[in-house]
Amino acid sequence: MNRTESLQIVKSHLKLARYEHTIRVADTAIDLAVHYEQPTDKIELAAIFHDYAKYRDLDEMKRWIEKSTLPKDLLDYHSELWHGPVGALLVEREVGITDRTILQAIHWHTTGKAYMNTMEKIIFLADYIEPGRNFPGVEDVREQAKQDLDYAVFLTLKNTIQHLITHNQKIYPDAIHAYNHLKSKIKLGE
């Protein structure tokens, strides 16, 4: 499936602003893939489909979580997290993409996880730093993305966790595990 076909499929599932975000995420992911010497085809596909379920009805997403093998504890956290795991499921069922690496990158783009592979890190990061994003700390992460993928993902997790704490929100355990794993891996000062 090429870029044009993929974008045509996702366009009908997204609002215009989210579709434009998707194009920017795909372009950012390709840039990161080239920079880190990764093949671009699967990364581009994962980026294009990362928000496939973003605007699905919450009751529909809840039903998918309840009747699938997805972790049921997702339902205990903000529904904003659901579209990654549910999206991976729906991309497989509705679009026919069965490549596990693509589906896992879609699944983990909302929370991250410990031991993310390079594609998962690139999609997670591209979604955060695409050029349309403008919030405190994003420029620092963009700069780090050119230097050290792990450190950029770590900063993304750190900023996200701090934001959630500031807004008195629950933090999904996999995000904490991802943060802790990268904290140990990159051996930041105590």
What does this structure look like?
The protein has 190 residues and is mainly α. The chain has a single domain (3-135), classed as Hypothetical protein af1432. The chain has 10 helices and no strands. It has helices spanning 3-11, 16-35, 40-49, 58-67, 83-95, 100-108, 118-129, 138-145, 149-166, 173-186. Helix 1 packs parallel to helix 3. It is globular, with a radius of gyration of 16 Å.
Summarize the helices and strands and which ones pair or pack.
Elements: H1 3-11, H2 16-35, H3 40-49, H4 58-67, H5 83-95, H6 100-108, H7 118-129, H8 138-145, H9 149-166, H10 173-186
Helix pairs in contact: 1-3, 2-3, 2-7, 3-6, 3-7, 5-6, 6-7, 7-9, 8-9, 9-10
N→C terminal distance: 46 Å
Count structural domains: 1
| Helix vs. strand class | mainly alpha
What coarse outline follows from CA principal-axis ratios?
globular
- Pattern of helices and strands: HHHHHHHHHH
State the CATH class: Mainly Alpha
CATH architecture call: Orthogonal Bundle
Strand composition percent: under 5%
Task: Output the CATH topology.
Answer: Hypothetical protein af1432
CATH superfamily: Hypothetical protein af1432
Helix content: 55-70%
Number of helices: 10
How many strands in all?
A: 0
Mean pLDDT, nearest integer?
Answer: 96
As a whole number of angstroms, the C-alpha radius of gyration is: 16 Å
How would you characterize the largest beta sheet? none
Low-confidence stretches are none
